[in-house]
Amino acid sequence: MGLLPSISQDLRVTIPEVGYVISAYALGVVVGAPMLTVLGRNLAPKQLLMLLMVLFTVFNTLSAFAPTNTVLFFTRLLAGLPHGAFFGWGRWWQVGWHSKASRHRPFQPCLLALRSLICSPCR
């Protein structure tokens, strides 16, 4: 991964220690999607999607300013939690608006926005 050496240098830890941050994010996605889907089932879809995106943005911002690898690990874990739930709820919510032929179109801007947030430089 291209960012691992830079992050390990900034935080003064080894590359394998920084690698755990990637695993933390993946664990957050796997745990967060079902957990937040169940917890958010009583909210209106639009409210839930906004809440998930706010959480995603806050935790990614905190990750960008993490002073230590431990803080980075936990902020990335927390940033992963809303990721899977956002995609599941967002896709489900938007599918109902469109005909079968055009159901893929409205979700493309969401994917582009999320990709740009994830791929933007963190330092």
UniProtKB/TrEMBL annotation:
The chain crosses the membrane at residues 20-39, 48-67. One of its GO terms (cellular component) is plasma membrane. Residues 1-123 form the Major facilitator superfamily (MFS) profile domain. PROSITE patterns: MFS. Keywords: Cell membrane, Membrane, Transmembrane, Transmembrane helix. The keyword Cell membrane applies. It is found in: Cell membrane. PANTHER family: CHLORAMPHENICOL EFFLUX PUMP RV0191, PURINE EFFLUX PUMP PBUE. This is MFS transporter. It comes from Hymenobacter cellulosilyticus.
